[in-house]
Amino acid sequence: MTNPTVLVTGATGTVGSALLPALKARGATVRAMIRSPFKAMPGVENVVADLRDPEALTAALKGVDAAFLNSPSDEDAAELQMRFADLAHKADVNRLVVLSQYEARTDSPVRFLRWHAEVEAHVRGLGLDHTVLRPNLYMQSLLGFAGTIAQGLLAAPIGDAAVSVVDTRDVAATAAAVLTSQGHTGRTYTLTGPRAVTHEQIAQALSKATGQAIDFEDVPPGQFVSALTGMIPPWQLRGLVEDYAHYARGEAAEVHTSVTDLTGAPARDIADFAHDHVGAFTRD
Ligand SMILES: NC(=O)c1ccc[n+]([C@@H]2O[C@H](COP(=O)([O-])OP(=O)(O)OC[C@H]3O[C@@H](n4cnc5c(N)ncnc54)[C@H](OP(=O)(O)O)[C@@H]3O)[C@@H](O)[C@H]2O)c1
To answer: Is there an atom of ligand 1 within 6 Å of 70 CB?
Structure first.
């Protein structure tokens, strides 16, 4: 596809916001889908639409060659994504790139992984040109805990299990490559960083970058839940506990080379992430 017009959902989010410039750099015409005109993204066309509004989605998809489907972590996320895929198919979008998750499986005990697998199966059944990206745990998810990390504590129910965490900038760069080049139809790519790291090693990387002592504490799931209660909805918290149990079982430690294979650049290491985000983890 030469100079395709690409619709990016979740354009204000972690992956979406990095995907916009990555697509522009590859010569694509970019249409950012946003929920509010007050959140317009710079340097690209913006279209206001909500995944819950089929009429607005149909308008947003008009004249689009390819679409990137990133969903919020909402309880009805699978339903919203499947409807978006149906509308993209109806609008004759040539290519759909779906953001899923590492180890998505219909029989997974982790609800998010079951939901993603359901969407993947639905998209596969539509018969349109599609590619699935399955990133592992985002390094950027540490930013959600930046306040306590800056105070010297990284706490999670994960023990000494390693996870091949990935930087969302690499997820975006890979998505840009897949959206603008050939040979990815029907493929599923698992996206990871260059090595699997324990949370102890993550704490060490953050300590080194900030020059402050940051300790990892393995906390029981109940304590993790208590610390986050009231900050995120209960169903999402239960999903997060399932995610961490999956990490703690050592099920998310494989390293894949897809980021480098598809972008030609090495995947960022946790040390790179820590270096680039030092301000967020440094005590005032
Ligand atoms: N976090 C991880 O470690 C991880 C790892 C692998 C896969 N994933 C997957 O990545 C996806 C995104 O997760 P995230 O938490 O990182 O979120 P995110 O992409 O950073 O943010 C969510 C995005 O969705 C938009 N959005 C929210 N509700 C919407 C709606 N009803 N209609 C249209 N757009 C809407 C938000 O826009 P506003 O700015 O308007 O709110 C925002 O741009 C999920 O499917 C998750 O399973 C996450």
So the answer is: yes
